[in-house]
Design goal:
This protein is mostly helical. The protein has one domain: Up-down Bundle (Methane Monooxygenase Hydroxylase, Chain G, domain 1). The chain is about 65% helix and about 0% strand. The structure holds protoporphyrin IX containing FE (HEM). The site of protoporphyrin IX containing FE has 23 residues, from α4, α14 and α15.
Length: about 350
C-alpha cells in the first residue's frame, strides 16, 4: 500500500529543518523561514535542472523533429514560470527584517548560497562560460563528490551548445542564386538611414547635438555588417562580443524576421522562450541582490564575496544567451522586410500544404 507521506518522503523533508540558533541556545523565530525558503528554492532548482536536461537531450541530435521542438518549447516555458515564481518568492524572505536576520546570521558562517551546487550546475548546464564569471574561487569548499557533479555538468552538452546545434540545422537560408542576405543588408541599411535622417530632423528642431546617437547608429551598423563577414565575425568571437556560431546567428535572424510563417512559428517561440529564460535568470539574480542589500547593506557575504557589488555584477555580466537577445537591434519593420522567393515561401507554409494534400 502506498501512503501519501511515504510516497513524498515527508519524514525526511519535514524533519530537515535544524535551527543553528537553537543549537546555540538562542532560538531565532525567523530562522525557520530562512531554512524553508532555501530548501524550497533548492527543490525548484532540481525541477529546473530536470527540465533543462531533458531539453538538451531532445535538441542535441542531428535532426530535431517539429514535435520534439514543441515539447522543448513547453518545457522551457515551464522552467520560465518556475524562475518567475522563484524571483517572486523573495518577497517571503523579505518579511524577515534585517534586525531579525542579525539574530542568527553569525551562526551561519561560512555557509552561503555560494555553495549551492545545484545553482552552479544550473549555470554550467545553461552554458555560462568561465570567461564570463565575475568570480571563480567559490569551488574551494566543495566536497570531492560535489566537485565531480560540477565537472560532469561542465563536460556535458550545455543548453547553449544544444540550441546552437539546432539553429545550425535550420534550412532555407541559401537558395540557388537568391541573395537573401544581400536584400536583408540593404533593408537594414535603409532602416538605419531612415533612423539617421529622423534623428537629424529632430535634433535640428530641438537644437540638440545628435553626434552621440549617430555614433551609436554607426556602431550598430558595423556590428550588423560584421555578422555577414566570416573574418569580422571571427574577430567578434575572439573579442567575446559574440559566442554563437555565425550560421546559428543568421538562422536566428531569419527565424525572427519570418516568424509569422507557419513553419517558423514554433522555432520562433522557442528562441523567444530561451531569451526569456536568460532574462528570468538575471531577474532572479537581481531580486536576490536587492533582497541581500536590504538584509546586510554593503557588508561582505558569509561566502567571502564583496556581497552586493559582486551579486550586482553577476546580474549584468553573466548572461548566457545575449547573442540572441542582441539581435533585436537588427530586426527590420515589415515594410523593410525583403520578400522571399516563391519556392521558399511555399515551403514555409508546409503545414497547410500537408493538410491540403
Ligand atoms: C537573508 C537572505 C539572504 C542573504 C543575506 C543572502 C546573501 C548572499 C550573499 C552575500 C551572496 C554572495 C556570496 C557570499 O559572499 O556569501 C549570496 C549568494 C547566493 N545566494 Fe544568497 N542570500 C540570501 C538568501 C538566499 C536564498 C533564499 C537563496 C535561494 C537558494 C540564495 C541563493 C544564493 C545563491 C545561489 C548564491 C550564489 C550566487 C552567485 O554566485 O551567482 N540566497 N547570497
Amino acid at each position: 500500500m502506498l501512503y501519501y507521506s511515504d510516497y513524498l518522503a515527508l519524514d525526511s523533508i519535514l524533519g530537515a529543518q535544524h535551527l543553528e540558533s537553537a543549537k546555540h541556545g538562542t532560538p531565532a523565530h525567523e530562522e525557520m523561514l530562512f531554512i524553508i525558503t532555501h530548501q524550497t528554492f533548492e527543490l525548484w532548482f532540481k525541477q529546473v535542472l530536470f527540465e533543462v536536461d531533458s531539453v538538451i537531450t531532445l535538441l542535441d541530435r542531428p535532426y530535431v523533429p517539429e514535435s520534439d521542438l514543441a515539447v522543448c518549447l513547453s518545457r522551457i516555458q515551464r522552467v520560465n514560470r518556475i524562475m518567475e515564481h522563484l524571483a517572486q518568492q523573495f518577497t517571503l524572505i523579505e518579511t524577515m527584517t534585517p534586525g531579525e536576520f542579525m539574530e542568527f546570521r553569525a551562526f551561519l558562517n561560512p555557509a552561503s548560497g555560494f555553495q549551492s551546487v545545484q545553482w552552479r550546475v544550473l549555470e554550467r548546464t545553461l552554458g555560462l562560460p568561465e570567461t564570463k564569471r565575475v568570480m571563480r574561487h567559490y569551488t574551494e569548499p566543495f566536497t570531492p563528490e560535489q566537485l565531480k557533479q560540477l565537472d560532469d555538468a561542465s563536460n556535458r552538452t550545455t543548453l547553449f551548445a544544444a540550441v546552437q546545434r539546432w539553429l545550425e540545422q535550420i534550412p532555407f537560408m541559401e537558395h540557388g542564386s537568391y541573395a537573401f542576405w544581400d536584400a536583408y543588408k540593404t533593408s537594414v541599411r535603409n532602416m538605419l538611414d531612415n533612423d539617421r535622417a529622423e534623428l537629424r530632423r529632430l535634433s535640428e528642431a530641438e537644437h540638440t547635438d545628435p553626434t552621440m546617437s549617430l555614433e551609436q547608429i554607426d556602431a550598430n551598423e558595423r556590428g550588423f555588417l560584421a555578422l555577414f563577414d566570416a573574418d569580422q565575425y571571427a574577430e567578434l568571437q575572439s573579442q567575446g562580443t559574440r559566442r554563437m556560431s555565425q550560421r546559428a546567428t543568421l538562422a536566428t535572424l531569419f527565424i525572427s524576421t519570418y516568424r509569422d510563417r507557419p513553419l517558423l512559428q514554433i522555432p520562433y517561440r522557442f528562441v523567444d522562450a530561451i531569451i526569456e529564460l536568460d532574462r528570468l535568470v538575471s531577474l532572479w539574480r537581481y531580486r536576490h541582490t536587492m533582497m541581500v542589500s536590504r538584509m546586510i547593506g554593503m557588508r561582505v557575504g558569509t561566502g567571502g564575496s564583496s556581497g552586493h557589488d559582486y551579486l550586482m555584477q553577476t546580474t549584468v555580466r553573466q548572461r548566457v544567451f545575449d547573442d540572441l537577445t542582441s539581435l533585436s537591434s537588427y530586426l527590420v519593420p515589415p515594410q523593410h522586410t525583403p520578400e522571399l522567393p516563391a519556392e521558399i515561401e511555399a515551403r514555409l507554409q508546409f503545414v497547410n500544404e500537408a493538410r491540403n494534400g
